[in-house]
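Batch job 17 of 40 flagged for manual review because the log was empty.
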Amino acid sequence: MAAASQAAAQRADTVSIPGGPHLHAGPGIRIKGEITGCETLRIEGAVDGTVAASHVILCNGGSFLGTMNVDHAEITGSFDGTLNVRGQLVVKSGGSVAGTVRYGQMEVERGGDITGDIGRASGQANDASHVAEAPAGSHRELEAVKRVLQDAAPSKLGRWAPR
């Protein structure tokens, strides 16, 4: 009984599920087809198909194969396919995403893996408003560093050589 309570508490600590209709594909559950009208989809089993939801949580041990169009995604399991995230995509440690990925914002934790055709969602310009302007002399300093590296003897640089 204590182990079951501890497992439930651990699950509750890792994810908060927003209100609205939600679907939970628990461990050992396999779903194939189209899922729509779902506020929150939590996958601990296997889903093969197409998903349109607001928030998707692909848990450790869970897998998804297909196309997903969501506002937010949190991946700790295995995703393979096309993933379109209008808002934030978080690939947690142990999570694996492969395929075509479009995102508004992305965070990949140490131990998370993302491979394939990765890019910003269309209409999501790179927001550089938070980037400070470089100090006046920095361009000259960068050019000086490049010259030093280009003039350095290859033996000191190992196998690196300027192009």
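Reviewer: the log was empty due to a logging misconfiguration, but the result itself is present. The helical segments are 2-14, 138-151, 154-157. Unflagging and moving on to job 18.
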